[in-house]
Amino acid sequence: MKLLLENWHSYLKEDIKGRSLDQYATELTKEVMHILKKDEFIKNIDKKGHAMETLKSPLIDELDSIRDIFIHVQQDEKYGVAEGHVMTHGSYEYTLGGDEEERKTSDLHINIVLPLEYDFLFFLIWYQT
User: Domain total for the chain?
Assistant: First the structure.
């Protein structure tokens, strides 16, 4: 997850004010893990096979070129996920050729694909905070 956020350095470097990108990635990763550990979020994934939540963080307000960060999780074997493995990818959505004002409406989507029989206990013990 941390690596995914670090890859957006070229988009965010002008927005970093007194903090390194590493600090942003670390703090946002912690907040993503808090979402993934929530009982209601896990129950939605288990019941429906997917869940989505918007990350709420004061850190996002410090980044001029990100409006929202969305966390999408789904269980699916069709994406070529090896048995027992997790796949993650992200996208930064913005208006192509947009000016500085339009960049403020850009969104970051973090997508996590889990195997169908994923043990959600991993979220609870993997990242203890």
Answer: 1
First and final C-alpha spacing in the chain: 16
How many CB atoms sit inside 10 A of residue 41's CB? 19
Nearest 5°: the CA angle 63, 104, 88 is: 65
Per-residue pLDDT of the chain (129 residues; tens, 9 = 90+): 455 555 555 555 555 544 556 777 788 888 888 888 888 988 888 899 899 999 888 888 887 788 889 999 998 766 655 666 778 888 888 888 878 888 788 898 999 888 887 777 766 665 555
Domain that holds residue 85: 2-126
The sign of the torsion formed by the CA atoms of 62, 96, 100, 19 equals: positive
Longest dimension (CA), the chain: 44
Q: For residues 7 and 123, what is the distance between their CA atoms, to the nearest angstrom? A: 23
Strands (E), 17-60: 50-55
Pairing of the two strands 50-55 and 107-114: unpaired
